[in-house]
Amino acid sequence: MLNVQDLHVSYGLVAAVKGVSFDVSKGELVTIIGANGAGKSTTLNALMGLVPLASGAIKLNGDSLAEVSVENRVGLGMGYAPEGRRVFSSLSVLENLKAGGITLSKSAMETRIQEVMERFPILRERRHQDAGVLSGGEQQMLAIARALMVNPDFLILDEPSLGLAPKIVSVVFEIIGELKQAGVTILLVEQNVKKSLAVADRAYVMELGLIVKSGPAAELADDPEIQDSYLGSME
Q: Which fold has domain 2-231?
């Protein structure tokens, strides 16, 4: 479904991503793990067209995204829940969902709102409240729900557990698992290495803008180097 070849992204003279290549097949949940500053979020931003490429190629279902705008990438079936949630705090939950489905027709939007509220019942209860007064966990659910408004075939999740209490982290990962079971293809960037490897099919390890290791998630979870570098301090 997604194929990334020799991706380079720079901020001025600083190379943030240095020739990254990876793929995600339809129906897979693939995770990219690594420490802060490894280039994970920059890679996701490049996939969505939010930062320019220095070089490299990104293809979705065999078609290049080089000339495709952010809005049109969403139209191609890409959903994105960014790091830090970035909900519209002064808008209601319902208005945030409508913003996520802005490309839909009125009838399709109403149908989709009902569908995502069924998946996230707390959002139905909070639908008229401003997003800024929600708890961190509720905001994260809203961010994921907003990304799901376009009923994406390919969902990108950037640090969905960041800053959440352990109990809420478990809830978020249950939701991610349910989405995978429902057939959504997912690319997950997450510092909670233990939980991300537990839910993923495959994993890539990034360090300093490079992918240094990849393989089945279960194998990497048992890899002594991964355990020493990540699982001990980043559970």
A: Rossmann fold (3.40.50)
